[in-house]
Amino acid sequence: MQTLPKDRRYETLSYLPPLTDAQISRQVQYILSQGYIPAIEFNESSEPTECYWTMWKLPLFGAGSTQEVLNEVQACRSQYSNCYIRIVGFDNVKQCQILSFLVHKPNSSGGRYY
User: Which string of DSSP letters, residue by residue, matches 68-84?
Assistant: First the structure.
């Protein structure tokens, strides 16, 4: 067994290599298929003490396709390329956030993000 290198870990899926566009698309499809409401959030920092992120527009209540969500991620990224951007899935029955994962890190070297 090997210890992971000491790197900053972020949120759900952070121990995996950066997600490809296809993998991000499948995660968004999972959010939609579970009936969760996707939202896009951004923040200049990803420090654990920063528990409040800014929401990009309103949650995507009527999102019917993965591409709609990814288009909003791209719009957010083009305006806030210097920020961390994540997709969040909300459960409207439990009234809470079920999952979230990063889709963009500023000045990321190496892996790809949408």
Answer: HHHHHHHHHHHH-TTSE
Query: Cβ of 106: how many Cβ atoms within 10 Å?
Result: 13
* Structure-token pair, residue 6: 């000491």
pLDDT higher than threshold 90 for residue 9 = no
Name the residue among 66, 65, 100, 103 with its Cα closest to residue 84. 103
Task: Look up residue 111 and give its amino acid.
Answer: G
Residue 97 lies in a domain: yes
Neighbours of 105 (CB within 10 A): 18
Domain range enclosing 38:
21-104
Higher pLDDT, 5 or 79: 79
Alpha-carbon span 19 to 91, nearest angstrom: 23
Say what the pTM is: 0.80
Whether 8 is covered by a domain: the verdict is no
Residue 60: pLDDT above 80? Answer: yes
Task: State the Cα–Cα distance between residues 6 and 58, nearest whole angstrom.
Answer: 36
